[in-house]
Backbone:
């Protein structure tokens, strides 16, 4: 009997160990508890030396103040305020901003806000899989749903891919179903008949007067969506990403060492960062093309709030892409790009924690939840907490 009691004791101890020490892939099953809890948030070792410890503390404080401001401005329906044509992209940016600091849905200071935001994004999905609050019209109109829907879809899909491993139960099932439908919509948009020069790309949902059917700005977001979905173990054929990367490589302008907006031209600092980041999504972190583009970014640092380089440049949009691109390149690129970029945000952040809208044309119409969330995402690559951007 004594030996039998010992066996039962050891079996019980083994069961406890198995329960508290999960094995295998870190993915939340539909009925499992959330995973990927981050016990602490510090800059990764290979990116930390861009700033001294005291300056990193300033960055951390800035991010925390920005997130507190965002949380206080969430709407009753779970969205974060912006134009209806920019939903659910802006709400998704806000969720990504919380994730980039280590916050997660569920328990925690912002867990409930994140869950409500995720539910809002899920509620925006159309029957065909499109993730968009407004219904696109029959023809392309500037800054209307026919213009912004493809952005909304890809950015919302990216966010859902990043939270899939951190939600459980009915919400996990809803995210999985939404992701599967969204991935099919993304593929259908990529595969529709195009000019050979636009093959592999994504563009607006409706034809435009530009006579092109794809651009680097939209394509980069869809490629990030595919990468996030693949990380989350959704079925994403490698062919989809390969076709997109071939398009991105065709967008390279060797004469300027920049990436073009589309085959008709147009370059900017943000688009160049988008090109670098897109190549990184395909594992081409240190290609000659990416390094040449990184050299161009080093020669065009951020100096002051609202500055634009190139007709397609957007201040916060560019900061997001350039920061993420610099983190992917690492080394002298990160050290040469990130400090000035971070200082630009720290010196312009408002006392209430928000970041002001752009003073020039561009994305000012999307409001302060847009500018504040993108500023956070530009400040936090060194934490390496968003799987899609991990090096």
Residues:
């Amino acid at each position: 009997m004594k030996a039998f009691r010992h066996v039962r004791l050891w079996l019980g101890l083994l069961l406890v160990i198995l329960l508290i020490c999960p094995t295998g892939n870190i993915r939340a099953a539909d009925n499992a508890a959330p995973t990927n809890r981050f016990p602490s948030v510090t800059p990764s070792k290979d990116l930390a030396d861009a700033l001294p410890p005291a300056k990193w503390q300033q960055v951390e404080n800035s991010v925390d103040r920005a997130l507190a401001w965002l949380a206080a401005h969430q709407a009753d329906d779970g969205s974060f305020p912006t134009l209806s044509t920019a939903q659910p992209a802006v709400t998704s940016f806000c969720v990504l901003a919380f994730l980039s600091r280590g916050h997660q849905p569920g328990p925690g200071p912002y867990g409930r806000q994140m869950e409500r935001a995720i539910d809002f994004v899920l509620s925006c999905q159309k029957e065909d899989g499109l993730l968009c609050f407004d219904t696109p019209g029959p023809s392309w109109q500037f800054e209307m749903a026919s213009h912004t829907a493809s952005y909304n879809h890809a950015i919302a899909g990216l966010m859902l891919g990043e939270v899939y491993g951190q939600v459980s139960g009915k919400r996990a099932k809803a995210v999985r179903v939404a992701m599967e439908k969204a991935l099919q919509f993304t593929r259908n948009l990529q595969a529709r008949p195009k000019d050979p020069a636009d093959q592999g790309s994504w563009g607006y949902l409706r034809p435009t007067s530009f006579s092109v059917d794809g651009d680097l700005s939209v394509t980069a977001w869809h490629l990030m969506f595919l990468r996030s979905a693949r990380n989350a173990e959704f079925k994403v054929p490698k062919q989809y990403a390969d076709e997109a990367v071939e398009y991105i490589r065709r967008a390279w302008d060797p004469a300027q060492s920049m990436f073009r907006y589309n085959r008709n031209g147009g370059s900017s600092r943000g688009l160049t960062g988008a090109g670098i980041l897109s190549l990184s999504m395909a594992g081409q972190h240190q290609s000659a093309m990416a390094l040449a583009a990184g050299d161009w970014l080093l020669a065009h640092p951020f100096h002051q709030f609202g500055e634009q380089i190139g007709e397609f440049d957007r201040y916060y949009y560019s900061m997001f892409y350039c920061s993420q691109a610099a983190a992917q390149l690492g080394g002298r690129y990160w050290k040469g790009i990130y400090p000035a970029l971070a200082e630009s945000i720290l010196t312009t952040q408002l006392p209430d924690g928000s970041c002001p809208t752009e003073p020039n044309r561009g994305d000012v119409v999307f409001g302060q939840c847009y500018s504040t969330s993108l500023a956070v995402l530009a400040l936090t690559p060194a934490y390496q907490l968003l799987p899609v951007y991990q090096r």
In short: The radius of gyration is 21 Å. The chain has a mean pLDDT of 87. The chain is about 55% helix and 5% strand. Strands lie at 252-253, 258-262, 265-267.
